[in-house]
Amino acid sequence: MAELYTEWKALMTAGGELSGWQTFFVKFYQAFIDADRWQLYLSGVGTTLMVTAMALVIGVVLGVFVALVRTAHDQQRRGRHNPVLGVLNAICKVYTTVIRGTPVMVQLLIFSFVIFVNSRNFTMVGAFGLGLNSGAYVSEIIRGGLMSVDPGQMEAGRSLGMNYFTVMRFIIIPQAIKAILPALGNEFIILLKDTSLISVIGGKELIYAAQGILSRTYEAMYPLLGAAAIYLVLVMAFTWLLGRLERRLRKSDRR
Predict the structure, then answer these.
(1) Which is the most buried residue in 89, 127, 168, 204, by most CB within 10 A?
(2) When comparing pLDDT for 195 and 13, which is higher?
(3) Closest of 189, 198, 152 to residue 172, by C-alpha
(4) Using an 8 Å Cβ cutoff, are 47 and 123 in contact?
């Protein structure tokens, strides 16, 4: 195959005519096989998954905290208002408003060129920025799930002598998780695809690898289509896993 590639590429460079199959073979080979360029895609996929995992952890931890603060504030009993909780709730509302109201691209640029201007680890800066962005959306998803549970269950738990956090942990949250899992799954898939944006600030993920190959081969279609196909496979795999998890939860409900 290498001999055919060398021969047909030399013919193409010289202006000779190649069949459609030969042209496809040359461009495919130089985009994925020549000089072991497939390793660049694998490296990009590894970085993409790492950034997704880091951003997911940051987003979930931050989202759970913000959701609990805002839910606890909204569910305070009449005449009993915790001033500390009020301050935290105000901060959380500003955070979700600013993050959800500005483009993630702008946020990444601010993190890279303003806040972390002295950092050269653009991949980690991108992971932090995506995690901070995801946390705002995750918080609203979780808060919606918590608020959808019948308020009478909270009152019943408190009447049995449980404190607020015990009721949330053993009664409210388990029910809310089943309701919000599809929305959380969609947010995770969006986060996976949004990792492509960190290439703008120099993050070395999948799109960065495709752009590097593009700049060497001067052929845009095959590297970009290859990256798109890899993203599609990853999204389909995670969608399948989420579907299995949802089915298992539904089975536990029937039992």
Answers:
(1) 127
(2) 195
(3) 152
(4) yes
